[in-house]
């Protein structure tokens, strides 16, 4: 029986973007099932007392240099987003809403948003920019925006975030194979071993 990899993610994390580019390959290689679990990273930080490495200038500069090294190693594009960090509440509600209401379009939805955020460097905390990105990718911005106000969607994102914290998540990307937590896109070798 194949194993399951739970991927707790927030679009606003560049390390999460890099993990997202690699996890489907890892799961295909190990005949594992990838489960995407949207969380609100700001909520995780608040609950755990953690903060983005970018809040420490020297660490932030190093982090982005290191992420660029990994992007080259993985052979994927990565552009530092000049609008980083942004409040991702609206985006992650939209992601959760698409997963709940339109699962058949979920992958294409996160694909276009990750690309806009970490390849194009778009300002995804601006409604007009988000609407433009969604329209260009075949999504109706009004329908997506309506999802962000859906009480069930709001509750699901909060529940995902609360459960992540209860399981020991303190940042993103966080991945679980069974009860074993792996944090960071630089731990994918361990994820591969755990799934192998």
Write up this protein.
The chain has 196 residues and is an alpha+beta fold. It has one domain (4-195): Glutaredoxin (3-Layer(aba) Sandwich). Helix content is 56%, strand content 10%. The protein is built from nine helices and four strands; from the N terminus they run βαβαααααααββα. The chain has helices at residues 14-29, 41-48, 57-74, 89-101, 106-118, 127-136, 141-148, 151-166, 188-195; strands at residues 4-9, 33-38, 174-177, 180-183. A four-stranded mixed sheet has the order 2-1-3-4, sandwiched between helices. Helix 1 (14-29) runs parallel beside helix 3, helix 1 packs parallel to helix 9 (188-195) and helix 2 crosses helix 8 (151-166). The N and C termini lie close together (12 Å).
Brief sketch in words of this structure:
The chain is α+β, with helices and mostly antiparallel strands and 196 residues long. The protein is built from 9 helices and 4 strands, in the order βαβαααααααββα.
Describe the secondary-structure layout.
Layout: E1 4-9, H1 14-29, E2 33-38, H2 41-48, H3 57-74, H4 89-101, H5 106-118, H6 127-136, H7 141-148, H8 151-166, E3 174-177, E4 180-183, H9 188-195
Parallel strand pairs: 1-2
Antiparallel strand pairs: 1-3, 3-4
Helix pairs in contact: 1-3, 1-9, 2-8, 4-7, 4-8
